[in-house]
């Protein structure tokens, strides 16, 4: 299969992990931001993680510099537009981008303006390219439940206007779900969809908790349900969709190498999986390359690809009109 030509859907992509290195330097110069270097090769070294990265914590260090240049309304609009532009140029037809608004308040920009700026970037790209998108608001697990509640409250007015869901992300510790019971329950009440990073770093029970306690409809990664029977069963029985990101999973050492990734075993056993980039720049990946890796390791067929594409349509938080539009691209998968 020629994966470049095929329609693609990316449901798990972090904005701050997907900046063009050239843009980092450009914004830093325009806004007088003191980044560690203005040499493109040095910036690439600091924001692109090798496959040999030792851990998730080490992987997350690559986000420091991108976040330094995402502290104005214009920079947020720009990097969002460029992300969708890059995705559109490799035939991604729909993308849900996520980010944590609270990380972009360093220079005093209000959370509502931060969200609005990202939505403007998405809409600008939609006007220019054959791509649609929506926004997921991430809350940081290393911050308080009160901060999560603030993001959920301030994002509420954008529901139905591009914001579709709430997420919990950052370093994963066992039992994190209980801390966020109240804000995630509030989010569901307001109409947010719920997707939770869980089971990425060896703790399968977190996936069980995310579904049972937080009402997660999708799970980011979910690798370690393979080692937790109850989590595996609830994901399968409730048709919880896994947003899987093979390249970053190797980098963060969720798996040792691509051949050990459980994505195809899950797929063959009836678990609904999707393939996603996670962080296009930090992982030096795009959807075409991600599918080429999965195809090389597991020899997926066009029927497998079609199945995964349909999983992504059904699991997306897009409205009915966009989902019907995405189904029309199925004829391209042969």
Automatic annotation (TrEMBL):
Keywords: Hydrolase, Metal-binding, Nucleotide metabolism, Zinc. Signal peptide: none annotated. Zn(2+) binds at residues 12, 14, 197, 278. The active site is at residue 200. Substrate binds at residues 14, 16. One of its GO terms (biological process) is adenosine catabolic process. The record marks 221 as: Important for catalytic activity. GO terms for cellular component: cytosol. Binds 1 zinc ion per subunit. Pfam families: A_deaminase. It is an enzyme of class 3 (hydrolase). Belongs to the metallo-dependent hydrolases superfamily. Adenosine and AMP deaminases family. Adenosine deaminase subfamily. Catalyzes the hydrolytic deamination of adenosine and 2-deoxyadenosine. This is Adenosine deaminase. The gene is add.
């Amino acid at each position: 299969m020629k994966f470049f030509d095929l329609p693609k859907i990316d449901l798990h992509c972090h904005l701050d992990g997907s900046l063009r290195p050239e843009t980092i330097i450009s914004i830093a110069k325009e806004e007088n931001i003191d980044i560690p270097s203005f040499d493109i090769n040095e910036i690439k070294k600091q924001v692109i993680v090798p496959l040999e990265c030792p851990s998730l914590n080490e992987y997350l260090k690559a986000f420091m510099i991108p976040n330094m240049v995402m502290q104005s309304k214009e920079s947020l609009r720009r990097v969002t537009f460029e992300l969708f532009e890059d995705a559109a140029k490799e035939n991604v037809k729909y993308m849900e981008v996520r980010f944590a608004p609270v990380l972009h308040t360093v220079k005093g920009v209000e959370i509502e303006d931060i969200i609005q700026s990202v939505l403007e970037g998405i809409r600008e790209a939609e006007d220019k390219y054959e791509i649609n998108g929506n926004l997921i608001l991430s809350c940081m697990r290393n911050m308080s439940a009160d901060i999560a509640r603030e993001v959920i409250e301030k994002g509420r007015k954008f529901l139905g206007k591009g914001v579709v869901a709430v997420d919990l992300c950052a370093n994963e510790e066992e039992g994190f779900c209980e801390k966020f019971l109240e804000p995630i329950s509030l989010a569901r009440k307001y109409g947010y969809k719920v997707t939770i990073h869980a089971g990425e770093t060896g703790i399968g029970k977190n996936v069980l908790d995310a579904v049972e306690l937080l009402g997660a409809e999708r799970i980011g990664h979910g690798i370690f349900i393979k080692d937790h029977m109850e989590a595996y069963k609830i994901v399968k029985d409730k048709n919880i969709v896994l947003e899987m990101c093979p390249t970053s999973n190797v980098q963060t050492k969720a798996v040792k190498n691509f051949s050990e990734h459980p994505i195809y075993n899950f797929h063959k056993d009836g678990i609904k999986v999707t393939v996603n980039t996670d962080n296009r720049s930090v992982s030096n990946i795009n959807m075409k390359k991600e599918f080429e890796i999965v195809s090389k390791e597991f020899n997926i067929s066009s029927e497998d690809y079609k199945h995964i594409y349909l999983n992504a349509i059904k699991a997306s938080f897009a409205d009915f009109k966009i989902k019907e539009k995405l189904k029309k691209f199925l004829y391209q998968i042969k």
